[in-house]
């Protein structure tokens, strides 16, 4: 089975949600160690000032040690960028649900394909604003909705502007607020987990939200090439766990929980979507049936009335 | 008689060169006021920057942001009286918590603009009072706008806000948390921000210099101008840096960024411009340009019409001529008037007299008629008597005499 798996390769779809300038694109390029996506920020005076959240998916096929990964990164330029951000999450939720719907449609077809191209979104990286002492109103609104349809991994963007103490305080604050608002971020506890998994999940939960720094630039520090950001007061090494949590995030997403992310999407989010849809269809059919019987009844009522009329005439 | 504007050379020491010192002493005694407003989204570093600028804890660092999507923008103000080198400064900092914090931030600029204008109106009211007491100046001298360091360019909310307020207040845009961006990213970001500002024709405060100033000051000003918008960090914590000196800054695992180090950020330049060199210019600009514009606008909308005749030069001889002419005119007018009145009266009298004449004539005629009637009556009576008394007797004669004697 592994060989088939290797031959077929896997689909992995991530969606990045956060305001412009948070470092979404840079982070993705850093995680996958290559320039996969271009930043969609406005760089010129006449540049596009997006009035709504746009959905921009980019697909690449990357390979490592004979394992192919069909990676789709979905960017959301325009999210949270306007003065009035009411409903800026609607296109995002719609996109995610559409992917579930497309998969469901293919599943329901009488003659299915050998392997359905899985475009369902497996992970959502939600970028939190550095500096806010907690969740902002827009964060709460969007997270509530996102966690219902996709695995959400909260991330603290541009962590190089926060000191170690500030980060710790922020993480604590976020976890409290998430619990208070009953927002469940990934990973979810499950009964199937054995002790190892539970320990790993706990460690991840402690680090969440991940304070990350992204960089595609490589510098020379003490002879060794280092990915990082260079300032006048020091160089931030992206791969150094003392500088930021990037390494932990990458390991978590790709090395340990990649398959889990895909599976949980299929089992939890897709299934709940499927149940909802089927129930809706059932209800619709029931409503239609009821309408039909009602119409028939009305017809019957009219019939005797009509005969009565005829008699009178 | 024109005032001579020639500069005359003095032949001895008069002493009014001491005037600047007198002004200096008086202003120190009086003390200075400065009102600053800070606008930016929550957690961007407003309180920290103010505390760092004035080296004193004016704002308590908020432990939690008010997460309430419905509050909108509030206006709060903190005052502090600080002293340095014998000079007293009454500093007021106006904060705007809630800006940019809701989901819908479309009207966030409104309460801020209203606050600024109401301060102008209050000043206008005081100016127009009949009895002027000591005027308290609450007008905002400068507004520091905090631009989020995204690295891209200005956000929609930034452009909207600055466009609405740049004609009412001295705008000083500032990039806080500048340790987020590397030097290259910062240069790119600053140039894109300035491109946006110029494209939307937003007027920000730019430090000016006098052509008479010395070269050092001019160079200083030019330096400041080149660095706008200032990229700053703030900190109230101190650490020891590599050279053993204790400095204010932020300590990271990869290094220590120093607040007062000009190669790390533009904080020193901001402080110099805001406080050392251009504080008075800010106050001046607020008073002469911004306030006056607001005042004219307000008075025009209230219906006042500009009367430019009050601006004519005052010339005494011409004034007297004018007056004499006016007086003559007045006299003429009065004369004409009196004439008219006289004529009118004469006419009236004439008509009256005519009327009475006619009346008398009528009466006269009437009387004449009456008399005629009477005479005719008498004649008849006479005839009658004469015809009845033919044989004339002495009685007749007597009677006749009697008649006549009657």
TrEMBL record, chain A:
One Pfam family matching this protein = Septin
Tell me a GO cellular component: cleavage apparatus septin structure
Q: Which InterPro entries match?
A: G_SEPTIN_dom (IPR030379), P-loop_NTPase (IPR027417), Septin (IPR016491)
Pinpoint the Septin-type G domain residues: 8-280
Listed under GO biological process in this entry are: mitotic cytokinesis
Query: Does the keyword field hold Nucleotide-binding?
Result: yes
Recorded GO MF terms: GTP binding
- Provide this UniProt record's keywords sorted from A to Z: Cell cycle, Cell division, Coiled coil, GTP-binding, Nucleotide-binding
Family from the record: Belongs to the TRAFAC class TrmE-Era-EngA-EngB-Septin-like GTPase superfamily. Septin GTPase family.
Q: Which named protein is this?
A: Septin-like protein
From TrEMBL, chain B:
Q: Which residue ranges does the record assign to the Septin-type G domain?
A: 30-301
The UniProt entry, under SUPFAM superfamilies, shows: P-loop containing nucleoside triphosphate hydrolases (SSF52540)
Q: Which InterPro entries match?
A: G_SEPTIN_dom, P-loop_NTPase, Septin
Q: Name one GO cellular component term.
A: cleavage apparatus septin structure
Record's keyword terms, sorted: Cell cycle, Cell division, Coiled coil, GTP-binding, Nucleotide-binding
The record's section on CDD domains has: CDC_Septin (cd01850)
Cell cycle: is it a keyword of this entry? yes
| Family classification | Belongs to the TRAFAC class TrmE-Era-EngA-EngB-Septin-like GTPase superfamily. Septin GTPase family.
Q: What is this protein called?
A: Cell division control protein 3
Recorded source organism is Zancudomyces culisetae (Gut fungus)
């Amino acid at each position: 089975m592994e060989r088939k798996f290797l031959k077929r390769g896997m689909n992995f779809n991530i969606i990045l949600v956060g305001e412009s300038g948070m470092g979404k694109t840079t982070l993705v390029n850093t995680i996958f160690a290559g320039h996969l996506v271009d930043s969609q920020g406005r760089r010129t005076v006449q540049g596009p000032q997006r009035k709504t959240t746009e959905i921009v998916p980019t697909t690449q096929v990357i390979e490592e040690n004979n394992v192919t990964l069909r990676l789709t990164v979905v960017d959301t330029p325009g999210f949270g960028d306007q003065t009035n951000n009411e409903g800026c999450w609607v296109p995002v939720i719609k996109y995610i649900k559409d992917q579930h719907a497309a998969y469901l449609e293919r599943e329901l077809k009488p003659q299915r394909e050998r392997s359905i191209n899985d475009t369902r979104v497996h992970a959502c990286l939600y970028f939190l604003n550095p500096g806010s002492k907690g969740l902002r109103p827009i964060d709460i609104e969007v997270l509530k909705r996102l966690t219902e349809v996709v695995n959400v991994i909260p991330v603290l963007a541009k962590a190089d502007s926060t000191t170690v103490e500030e980060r710790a305080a922020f993480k604590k604050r976020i976890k409290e607020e998430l619990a208070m608002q009953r927002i469940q971020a990934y990973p979810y506890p499950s009964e199937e987990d054995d002790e190892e998994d539970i320990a790993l999940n706990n460690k991840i939960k402690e680090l969440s939200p991940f304070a990350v720094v992204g960089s595609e630039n490589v510098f020379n520090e003490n002879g060794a090439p280092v990915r990082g950001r260079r300032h006048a007061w020091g160089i931030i090494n992206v791969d150094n766990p003392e500088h930021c949590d990037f390494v932990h995030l990458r390991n978590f997403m790709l090395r340990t929980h990649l398959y889990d992310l895909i599976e949980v999407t299929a089992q939890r989010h897709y299934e709940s979507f499927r149940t909802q849809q089927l129930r809706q269809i059932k209800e619709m059919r029931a409503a239609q049936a009821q309408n039909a019987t009602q119409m028939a009844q009305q017809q019957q009522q009219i019939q005797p009335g009509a005969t009565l009329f005829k008699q009178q005439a | 008689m024109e005032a001579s504007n020639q500069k005359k050379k003095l032949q001895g020491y008069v002493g009014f060169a001491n005037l600047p010192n007198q002004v200096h002493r008086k202003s120190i005694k009086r003390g200075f006021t400065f009102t600053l407003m800070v606008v930016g989204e929550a957690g961007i570093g407003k309180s920290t920057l103010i505390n760092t600028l004035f080296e004193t804890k004016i704002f308590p660092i908020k432990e939690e942001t008010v997460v309430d999507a419905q509050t909108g923008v509030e206006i709060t103000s903190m005052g502090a009286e600080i002293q340095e080198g014998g000079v007293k400064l009454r500093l007021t900092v106006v904060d705007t918590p809630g800006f940019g914090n809701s989901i819908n931030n479309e009207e966030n600029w409104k309460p801020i603009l209203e606050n600024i204008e109401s301060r102008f109106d209050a000043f206008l009211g005081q100016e127009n009072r009949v009895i002027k007491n000591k005027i308290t100046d609450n007008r905002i001298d400068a507004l520091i706008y905090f631009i989020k360091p995204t690295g891209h360019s200005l956000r929609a909310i930034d452009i909207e806000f600055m466009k609405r307020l740049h004609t009412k207040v001295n705008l000083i845009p500032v990039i806080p948390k500048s340790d987020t961006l590397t030097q290259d990213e910062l240069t790119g970001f600053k140039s894109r921000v300035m491109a946006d500002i110029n494209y939307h024709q937003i007027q920000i405060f730019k430090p000016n210099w006098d052509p008479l100033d010395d070269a050092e000051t001019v160079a200083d000003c030019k330096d400041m101008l080149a660095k706008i918008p200032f990229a700053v960090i703030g900190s109230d914590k101190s650490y020891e840096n590599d050279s053993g000196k204790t400095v204010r800054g932020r300590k990271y695992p990869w290094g220590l960024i120093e607040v007062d180090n000009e190669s790390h950020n533009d904080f020193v330049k901001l402080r110099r411009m805001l406080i050392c060199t251009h504080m008075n210019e800010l106050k001046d600009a607020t008073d002469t340009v911004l306030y006056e514009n607001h005042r004219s606008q307000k008075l025009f909308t209230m219906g006042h019409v500009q009367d430019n005749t009050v601006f004519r030069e005052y010339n005494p001889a011409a004034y007297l001529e004018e007056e004499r002419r006016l007086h003559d005119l007045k006299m003429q007018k009065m004369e004409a008037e009196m004439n008219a009145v006289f004529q009118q009266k004469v006419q009236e009298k004439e008509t009256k007299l005519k009327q009475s004449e006619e009346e008398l004539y009528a009466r006269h005629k009437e009387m004449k008629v009456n008399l005629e009637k009477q005479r005719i009556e008498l004649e008849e009576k006479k005839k009658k008597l004469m015809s009845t008394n033919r044989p004339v007797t002495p009685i007749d004669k007597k009677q006749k005499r009697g008649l006549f004697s009657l």
